Amino acid sequence: MSARKSAEPSPEAIARSNRQRLAAEEGARAMVDAEKQAVDVRKNMARLRELRQAKEAADATLQASLPASTPAKRKKKVPR
Q1: What is the CA radius of gyration of the chain?
Q2: Nearest 10 degrees: CA dihedral of 54, 60, 61, 65?
C-alpha cells in the first residue's frame, strides 16, 4: 500500500500556504511600523533633552548673575 502524493496540492494546503504568506507580510509590515515608531521616539527624546539642557543652562546663568542671598537671622522666640 504505497500512497503517492498527487501533483496538485489539496485545498487545505493551499489555504495554509495563503495564511502563512499573509502572516509573513503582516509581520514584515509590523516590524517596519515598530522601527519607525522607535525612530520617532528617539527623535522626540533628543528634542526634549536639548530643551531641558538649554533650560538648565539658562537657569544656571540666571543663578550666577543673581547676588548670593544671605540667610536671614533667626528671631528669638518670645517666651510665653
Answers
A1: 35
A2: 160
Integer Cα distance of 23 and 19 in angstroms: 6
User: At 43, phi and psi to the nearest 5?
Assistant: -65, -45
Angstrom distance (rounded) from CA 69 to CA 44: 38
Which residues of the chain register pLDDT less than 50?
1
**H helix or E strand, kind and range, residue 36:** helix 11-65
Q: How far is CA 73 from CA 13, 27, 70, 76, in A?
A: 89, 69, 9, 9
